[in-house]
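#onboarding

Welcome to the new folks! Below is a worked example of what a typical request in this channel looks like: someone posts a single protein sequence, and someone else replies with the predicted structure as tokens. Don't worry about understanding the tokens yet, we'll cover that in week two.

Example request:
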Amino acid sequence: MPIYESRSSIYYDIQNYFTAADSEDLTPLEKRTLSEVLNQMTVRDNRIEWIALYSDNREINYIKYSNSSVIHVITDSFPYLTDISSKTSQMEIYGTREIKTTNNIFSTFAICGGVPVGMGSGKIIIGYHLNTFESFVSSQIDTIPSARYYMISNNQVIFDSLGEYSLEHLYIPYEPKKGLTEFNSNPIYIKADYSGNSRSFIVYTADWNDIFLPSHQDTLWILGITLAFMIFSLVVHFGMNRSVSKEVAIIQEGLDIIADNHLDYRLPTNFLQGGLPEIAQNINEMSSRLNENIKKAYYFELKQKDAQLAQLQTTFNPHFLYNTLEMLRSKSYANGDEDTAE
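Example response:
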């Protein structure tokens, strides 16, 4: 506001407005001067829709709209008149209301402050358009019908994306909140945070069903695909398990045959499971070596028996010859043939 920058003519024009006690309307020159003063304020912020000056010393106060070159009298239908009259804080924010002019009706929210010290008693109230909020809302996701953005300050609705501006239809937070809650017997999702001070909030709400159902619209497909993969995995698992069991049974049967001294039996090696062909090949090689060792041991055992028999025969033959000669000698003596016996 230029009135805060320096003690220019604007400062004194505003000071005269708030300090002078006048029950009559301003003169045309005073109106033109006041219009120029308010115009210098509006051109500094393109969000301003109107500026109003309310002096406690005047019966007639004025407002200037940004699309008008002249000022207008504040009538009893001015929607912020009650708020201005009961203002207690240095600066207050008022909720969105409809402003009616001769040619138009539009909605604004307002910020009301006091006048500088030494300038009398009164208020300066500025109305702002909602274009910034509306452009923000229009850029958000529109797939949730119940989605709602709103701003509240001191229990006044600054902005409501649904345009209702009624506290009865809004969840009023008293602290930052995020998550599922219940409002008017319906579950809603809410996200609320402070906006500037502890009495002002920016809030987003949506019906829980509008969030839950779309977010789970593919859940059945996902569960179906997951179930299909599980079934497929079980089929593959049992198939592989059956194949492994079948081939292991073949190896077990072959080992039983080999255990019955059929060492010439050979296991098949065309198994499909990894590692089983190598195991079968190793068993066949072991069986072959075992069979060869057994044959060698049997051969050496026969040789050993032959040697023992030869040794026995070598020992037995001299005794047999001696006994035979002794029998003949005895017979010769018995027959009196001593020369033959000798």
